[in-house]
Design a protein that fits this description.
By secondary structure, the chain is an alpha/beta fold. The chain folds into two domains: 49 residues, no CATH class; 195 residues, no CATH class. 49% of the residues lie in helices and 9% in strands. It has a five-stranded mixed β-sheet with strand order 3-1-2-4-5. The chain is globular. The termini are far apart.
Length: 259
Amino acid sequence: MSDVMLQKFYNDVKDPNWSNIETYNDFCKLPSNVQKECYEQHGLKARLNQIENPDYWHGLITIAWQYENITYVPVCKCASSYYSDLFENTYGWTKIHFNDIDFESTNAFGLVMHPLDRYLKGVAEWLYRYQILDSYTGNLENDQRLVNIMGSIQIPDQHCMPLYMQYGKYVDKINWIPMDVMSEQQVTNHIEKFLETHGCNIKLPVDRPKLNSSPPDKLNLYRTIKKLYPSKIEMELFYYFFAKDLNFYRTLIQQYSSI
């Protein structure tokens, strides 16, 4: 399998007389003068440090919204579409790449829910968005394709990705609100209180329509997935991937329970 990013870097700098490569093993077979030029003149070491650094990639695939010293960090399946649209199109916040957040000068916040619930909602989102199944109505518990899919851990996109996989070390630098243990009004109150604490005195709308409300067949899919769990899912693998998220969420709930 080709190392696409290494291959792209190499093709951008290569001399027409150099051999083609697909992997780093191929690169190591190049003449030593070619390898030296790539490292010393074209910055291969710095590029490899980027390619092999998870923080670099989650910064590129994730966006946030910023207003002065406040940054909203969206999490898929946690009202992210609603609040992203609200802060950008109603209040005029600036959309930025996650890599551009200066955590030393900003006050970041976001919404989360129990890692398992978010994962199951994410799987349902993926299955529905890409029409993986033939039908989403009726008794889906007998759909063998769905049963097979739920028999293994699927992390096909950001909707299913563990929080620590997506945000890495920056999870601990963000002020999180556990939206699933409070009412919508309580979530609104916590957000407004956070914003006010940091100098942003706005009142969030109480009657603004939700974005991306789930249609009945999508809700049917999610309910079926919840029924199939945990008899079908490989729980050992789930806890392997989500152990840090579960510990983070438990600690967060303890903090909010003491408020």
